[in-house]
Amino acid sequence: QVQLVESGGGLVQAGGSLSVSCAASGSIFSINAMGWFRQAPGKQRELVARITTVGTTNYVDSVKGRFTISRNNAKNTVYLQMNNLKPEDTAVYYCNAELPGLRVSWGQGTQVTVSS
After folding, report:
1. Which of 9, 15, 38, 52 is buried most, with the most CB atoms less than 10 Å from its CB?
2. Is the CA virtual torsion 13, 17, 40, 77 positive or negative?
3. Which tens digits make up the pLDDT trace of 73-90?
4. Number of C-beta neighbours around residue 56 at 10 A
5. What is the DSSP string of 7-45?
6. Is the pLDDT of residue 20 over 90?
7. Is residue 23 within 8 Å of 4, Cβ to Cβ?
8. Which of the residue ranges 25-29, 36-40, 96-100 would you say has the lowest mean pLDDT?
9. Which residues touch 115 (CB under 8 Å, ≥6 apart)?
């Protein structure tokens, strides 16, 4: 079992920056990759950014150049730095861990609100 706890998020004006963190605990040795998803009201949850155990990253097109995902293996923590935020970035952001056997673990989510 892997437990994920997000922190950060909040309210920011358009053009501002926020950072969210995700701390993993439990069977962390089993984690293959971690990512951040988001879900806006009335929309499906979408992958925002993903990072593998060797540091390979990928992003959804809408955040490329604005968001950066990183990880601190010593702290078992993944970060998402969000710059130049836009109102359409408003969503609940969820941390995700990919486990063997196509299993995943999810955090509880943290709200990010960008005002125009």
Report:
1. 38
2. negative
3. 888 999 999 999 999 999
4. 9
5. EE-EEEETT--EEEEEEEEESGGG--EEEEEEE-TTS--
6. yes
7. yes
8. 25-29
9. 11, 12, 13, 14, 87
CA-to-CA distance for 34 and 53, rounded, in angstroms? 8
* Under 8 Å between Cβ of 48 and 67: yes
> Going by DSSP bridges, is the β-strand pair 91-99/110-115 parallel, antiparallel, or unpaired?
antiparallel
pLDDT at 29: 86
Cα 41 from Cα 21, distance rounded (Å):
22
Q: In sequence order, what are the residues at sequence separation of 6 or more whose Cβ sits closer than 8 angstroms to the Cβ of residue 10?
A: 18, 111, 112, 113
User: What average pLDDT does the structure give for the chain?
Assistant: 95
- Identify the sign of the CA torsion 75, 45, 17, 107: negative
